[in-house]
Amino acid sequence: MTDCQFQRGSVLVMVVFVVSIIVALSVRFTSDFQLTVARIEQHMIHTQLQQYLHSVENFASWVLIEDAKKDDSNGHFKSNGAGGNYDHLQEEWNSLLHTPIETATISAKLTDALSYFNVNQLLGRPQGYNPNGVFSQRFTVAQKRFVRLLQTHPDDLVDSILAQQITDAVVDWIDSDNTISGIGGAESYYTTLKPPYRAANQLFISVTELRQVRGITPEIYDYLKTVVVALPNTVGININTALPAVMRSLNQKDTETPLSKEDVDILVASRPPPRGESDDNEAINHTIDGYTSVDDFFKSDGAQRVFGGEVGLLPPKEGLRTGSEYFILEAEATLLDYQRQQTSMLKREMVATGFKVRVLRRAREQL
């Protein structure tokens, strides 16, 4: 082989080597570029989805404000800023939203938070509290209702005794002292577990905390999370919107067991039906406009049939309302193959300039 041929061969090898490097770098750069583009695309889509969800919050806030204005013009809204005192299932906020927007689809639902049982209303002790006394001496009105609510578990997993023990444990979870309550209380009990932890000794922030409370099994929690809510204060129940299970907790003051399903069917039938579920827009034995007061509810045909006409047979009025200032917004936005869900807790209130709605918290799971 001549020197010229050898040099040409060496040059060819070098060219092939350089081309190989360039191809490898190109493949690497192309892969990185495609990955970067995909990441940017995902970020842009998720940002757009989040903006859609914020827009749904703004729309829901507008709906609630318009409802408050309407109630206020009719004299049905409280003037002390505590919130609405007249909300029922026939109002426009109870409409399901499902609409396409450009290439996206948005679904949303507003729910009165006071249709659930607020676990934070369990705070406190009854007057004349006796931890070793009878049912009426150990529990407040709200705590008695929770004892009954626990017994509405569809699989009958909770009897009266277990319900009272769980209620004691829940009270200990949210009270600020270290004194054990009743027969089922739990304070330092949690420090003996593996891993150990302590009772919160403050109001519930989320109902998911119930999973840590003594006596609440996964099966009991799976049911409770469908009928309870954790609100930032001790507000009670809206009888215009309360779930059937929550209505079952409204028995006579010292009765340990819940109302029967048949009795609650009568009470629910006396309310205006949910918006869009009535052919003639007329509730059975009542008007379309719902109850404007708790007394109005107790005077209804349904309440008279279930509790009787005597005042002493009626459930306590304490903690019962006919309106709400707290609402739960469940929203979902879909764009291309991407989906984003969000649950928001909204609070409607009266201010000096009129009405406003604040977003108290957001979550991708239950509040």
UniProtKB/TrEMBL annotation:
Compartments where found: Cell inner membrane
Segments forming domain T2SS protein K first SAM-like: 117-233
Cellular component aspect of the GO annotation: plasma membrane
Presence of keyword Nucleotide-binding: no
Residue ranges crossing the lipid bilayer per the database entry: 12-29
NCBIfam families, per the entry: T2SS_GspK
Protein family membership: Belongs to the GSP K family.
InterPro entries: GspK, GspK_central_sf, Pilin-like, T2SSK_SAM-like_1st
Protein name, per record: Type II secretion system protein K
Keyword RNA-binding set for record: no
Organism listed in the record: Candidatus Endobugula sertula (Bugula neritina bacterial symbiont)
GO biological process terms on file: protein secretion
Annotated keywords: Cell inner membrane, Cell membrane, Membrane, Protein transport, Transmembrane, Transmembrane helix, Transport
Lineage: superkingdom: Bacteria
Predominant location: membrane
